[in-house]
Structure formats: C-alpha cells, structure tokens
Amino acid sequence: AAAEKGGFDSFMDKEIHDQPHAVADTLLGRTDAAGRLVLDDLRIDESVLRAVNKIIVVACGTAAYSGHVAKYAIEHWCRIPVEVELAHEFRYRDPIVDERTLVVAVTQSGETMDTLMAVRHAREQGAKVVSIVNTHGSTIPRESDAVLYTHAGPEIAVASTKAFLAQITAAYLLGLYLAQLRGNKFPDEIAALLDDLRDMPRKIQTVIERGEYVRATARSMSSSDKVLFLGRHVGFPVALEGALKLKELAYIHAEGFAAGELKHGPIALIDEGQPVFVVVPSPRGRDSLHSKVVSNIQEIRARGARTLVIAEDGDDEVRDYADEVFWIPKAPTLLQPLLAVVPLQIFAMALATAKGLDVDQPRNLAKSVTVE
Ligand code: G6P
C-alpha cells in the first residue's frame, strides 16, 4: 500500500498532489487540428444540442458542487439556463424535463444509485443525458446518451479531491463546446478560454507547493468545533465544498454560506474566536464583488471572527482584515475554484491528521453509495 501511495502518507495526500495532472489530462486531446473543441465521446446529434433550452445538472456530494461551479460558467458562456439539483431530490419531485432538456449527470464512480435513478428518470421523460464520469466501464455512462470522461485516474480516498477538479474542468469543456456549437462565442474567444484552462495545472501546482502554511494553520486549529465558510459567485460552491471536506475528514461541524447571505442570518453565529474561511473573488472581476466580500470580512472580524482568507496574489486590500491569508495565483474569475478549493482540501486533511483520524477512510462513509 505504501508504494501505491507514491511516498505520501495517505491516498488523499497523493490525490491532492495528483490534481495538476488530473486537470491537464482531462483537457488533453479535446481539440482538432484547427483548434476547435471536439468531444469524441459526446454522441448526441448536434441539432439536438443546438435546440437545448435548459440544462439540469444532477449529482450527489462533491460532484454536485462541481455542478454549482459549472452553472456559473455555462450560463455565462452559453446563455442556457442551468439548474443544479441533488439527484435524489430531482428524481422524486416530478421535475419538468422534456426533449429539449439536457441533463448532465456528474459522478466520479459512475455507480451512485441516486444519480443513476435520476438519469433513468430523465431519459424516460425524453431528455438527453450526458454524464461526466471518472470510472470507465461503470454503469452511469452505459445508461447515458453520451459521456465525457474525466481523466483524474483512480480515486481511492473516500472523500473526493482530484475528481472534483477534473469534473469542473470537464464541465467547462462541455460549456465551451456548447458555446462553440451554438455560436455563442467566436472561435478566438473559445481558444483564449482554453488557453486559460491549460494554464491552470501549473497554478494548481503552485497552490499545492504553498501547502505547508495551510497545514501548520490546520494543526494549530485541531480543537475547533465549528468552522464557517463564506464565498460568493463561484466562490460559494467552493465554500460549500470546503465545509463538506471538513465534515467528512475531521468530523467538525462546518457550514458554507453565500457571503451575501451573511447579514440575513449566519452573522448571528459569529462570536469571539470563531474561525471563518472566506474565499475572496478576484479584485479584477466585474460587479465589485471583491469589495463586497472584503466588507464581509471586516464585518465578521469586528465581531471577533478569526478570518482565514483565500485571496489572489497581490490582493493587498484583504491583508489588513485577515488573520491568515492563503494566497492563490491570479486566474480568470470563472476558473478560480480550481485553485481556491485546494487550500481547503489541504486544511481538512491536515486537521483530520492532527486529530489522529484516518483521512482515507472516514467513519460511516463509503466511496460509492450504490443503494438509494
Ligand atoms: C459518496 C462519496 C463522496 C462523493 C459522493 C458522490 O458520498 O463519499 O465523496 O462525492 O458519493 O459520488 P460519485 O461517485 O457519484 O461522484
């Protein structure tokens, strides 16, 4: 087993370190000689894909959060409404689905029963299903109209890390493919976005190399009993995933909130010393989201929170209000989740390790849940 872990203490640690490759491999071979996106394993008639008027992403757990990230990108690029729903909720609420609905099922294992049932239901209603799957030969791709494989390699640790980054990457590819097909974007715009994506593995590697500071912080926080996570826009699903990782690995009560929601409730939770992670949007992004989130940091700090901030290199404004800053390289706003989630994964793993827990096999969880 030591050899399989490639010299790392755990599969989780190895898989976190695998992430630059997981993203790079998922991007590999997706363009033709002319630089146009080709998704070989996407076998749905182009005319059907052009007519799609709604996308519903169905998934569970971490995979569902990749869908939340994808929603921001696909709606922005393709101008198609995207809903994201937990597969088990979708299946049993009589969802509105028809021939013009594209259902995107996201799953690492390809075997999650809740997701499979959602896929079957969607197809019975006439929808086309594209699955984004990591495991070749699994059930969900067999039962889908098309599959877009992530190439993260086998993921052994129960809590998902590299599959998540690969899922986001694959969902971006799907979004760009649809934008290309439907003429929402010029070829050079798509090429530029693909270049940005191809630049991400290097930046992810940088975040991993900065991991020791995150680990040290986590070790100093091993007695925390409640941790909050705030994010806005694509940082919101990152906050949800950061909280999930901490629950799964360290058995700590953790909640992710949309930063804009703070004043509508969660701020009541803040008291002296309360640790709060905040994912800060790029200062170069539009709509002044950056300054709104910086104000949130000031608000919670004024109420005693210990602020653990994930911010872009060079974002000097956050420094004054942060107890700790975990710096990530600059990236286009929509791609930031591929970087911002990494310190949160490392934090959860290191804190769990400091508590003496088995990070690869958390209690009560299964890698793949094959019952409803
Ligand atoms: C289980 C795992 C999670 C995973 C979820 C969905 O609950 O413990 O890590 O995110 O299933 O799994 P899937 O294979 O469908 O991505």
From TrEMBL:
Catalytic activity, EC: 2.6.1.16
Signal sequence region: none
Main location: cytoplasm
Domain SIS: 44-184, 217-362
Keywords assigned: Aminotransferase, Cytoplasm, Glutamine amidotransferase, Repeat, Transferase
Domain of life of the organism encoding this protein: Bacteria
Location of the active site: 367
Catalytic activity: D-fructose 6-phosphate + L-glutamine = D-glucosamine 6-phosphate + L-glutamate
Keyword NAD among record annotations: no
Described function: Catalyzes the first step in hexosamine metabolism, converting fructose-6P into glucosamine-6P using glutamine as a nitrogen source.
Quaternary structure and partners: Homodimer.
Protein name per Swiss-Prot or TrEMBL: Glutamine--fructose-6-phosphate aminotransferase [isomerizing]
Section of the entire sequence shown: 265 to 636 of 636
